[in-house]
Amino acid sequence: MTGLDLKFYFSLFLRRVHYFIAVTVLIAASGIMVSYVLPPVFRAEALLLVESPQIPDELAESTVRTAAPEQLEIIKQRLLTRAELLDLSREFQIHDRRSGFSPDEIVEDMRDRIRISLPGVRDVAIFVTVSFDAPGALLSARVTNELVTRILEENVALRTGVAGQTLDFFEQEVERLTDELAIQGARITEFKQSNEGALPDSLDYRRNRLVVLQERQLQGERELERLRERRERLIEIYQRTGQVGLEGSGTSADERQLRDLELELEQVREFLNPENPRIRIRIQTLERQIEALRASIAGVDGETADGLTAYDLQMADIDGQIDYLQEQQNGLEAEVTALVTSLEATPANAIALDVLERDYENIRLQYAQASDRLAQAITGDRIEALSKGQRITVIEQAVVPDAPASPNRPLLALGSVAFGMVAGGALVVLIELMNRAIRRPADLTNSLGITPFATIPYIRTEEEIRFRRLAILGVIAFGLVGVPLMLLMVHIFYLPIDLLVDKIMDATGLSGFVERVRAGRGG
Prior knowledge:
Blueprint: H1 6-15, H2 17-37, E1 42-51, H3 68-79, H4 82-92, H5 103-113, E2 114-117, E3 126-134, H6 137-194, H7 203-241, H8 252-271, H9 277-297, H10 310-385, E4 391-396, H11 409-434, H12 441-448, H13 462-494, H14 497-508, H15 510-522
Antiparallel strand pairs: 1-3, 1-4, 2-3
């Protein structure tokens, strides 16, 4: 027999129909009972919109740079923290009626109930859906609106917090750089005061001054040499002739010289400080010269009123001029030495001063940048304080749902019946596949290689038929009445069916699979 013997297989099915009926009734009754025992779950939804900044970035830019998807993810994770979820459960008494819930179980249950759908990066308009599953419609709406309120508060706190921290940072940075500028400026001032005569800004002046002083030194040396020669000649003339000059020395030339010396003495006393040692010596020299000329003009050839001869007066005058010039030369030498020392120290001072000024300029540039960014931070903080930057607004508040979102009782009932029928059919097929007995002539030919003349089927007795019918009816009755009654007793006296289902899913690992499926649909 090569074709498919449908009649034979149908007869086999009828023989095992009680298994099919039993499995189908048990699973269908259990599924129907569970579908109508499961508590209703209401889901209220709210719709949020992430708005773009109201002030264009070209005019005033916010200091908060967090992108909208990243910001929403941060807010979501903050709302789903352990402390926030326990606080939300206590506030709305979500788990008060269910005894035996540990804090970990409460947190896990709250995370399963809350749904916050985040948008994709490619979305032009960013919409966010917030929902909460609860056994009551009013509770679902209240908790959903509370979640919306917390999302808005978290958004404001996050953005104002970031803007405030940015503002505080740049305020501290500007204050720090201001102190550094003052310290560096004080260092430069102290360095300039300590090296006042050896700074690069006066280098040209000191070089020119050195040249002038060296020229004056040469003139002074020549003048000293002239006075020394005059003194030697005066001594030589006096020793040879006993006189210091020619007769008739009181000429008009001496009078003119006397007037010039008197005029110079008046100018020195009037315009110069007589307390200065050099000026005092010059005044004394001028007084001696004037006294000597007066004596010469008066024709005094012998001693003066003070007992001094003309020779003594002229020698004193020359010696005074020599002393004065020598003192000038000593002063010039000291000043030249100081200038040379300062010129030698100028390159090192220029390098040190350049380092100080370069550090000061770097700090000043940092201060200018920090001040500019502080102004931007103040503007950004003001934008966030007035909610003029990127913000989240409520498009649609959560309202009390009219009907539960789950479970879908008709679908569950039909699904359980279909699953029961599939399971019953699978059981019958499995039993027949495991049965290796000979049940038709074709099996005789295939197994033993003989062809029977005739076959006699197995004929059941009345008692076997009656027992089989009673067994089928008992299984149907047990499935229709016993199984729902047992599930109802478990639901009432042991554990609610929904919690029992959750525990079974957690134990078998199906809960993780369901969460991944939900996350995939939400994404």
